[in-house]
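As a point of orientation, let us examine one representative protein, giving the amino acid sequence and backbone structure tokens.
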Amino acid sequence: MSTGQPNPIMNLVPLVLIFVIFYFMLIRPQKKQQHEHKKMLEGIAKNDEIVTSGGIHGTVINVKDKTVIVRIDENVKMEIEKSSVAYIKRPQVQAGS
């Protein structure tokens, strides 16, 4: 009787499996979310109502290459980086009115 040693490749299978699970559970969804955010930032237009990552609500009055100018109140304008825009507010549709 000989006691055979386990195949060294079989020792790598659990690590590869963990990496595959990690890729599909974390990396791939995060890349998809980043792509959607980038696409949203490219679509910012004048008169869009936005919310920044700092929680500031405002209306876009001018769009530049890397920044946007936002009106946050009467006679109050602020220039912010496009990357700090968290999302664009969409008008809510009232059902049954």
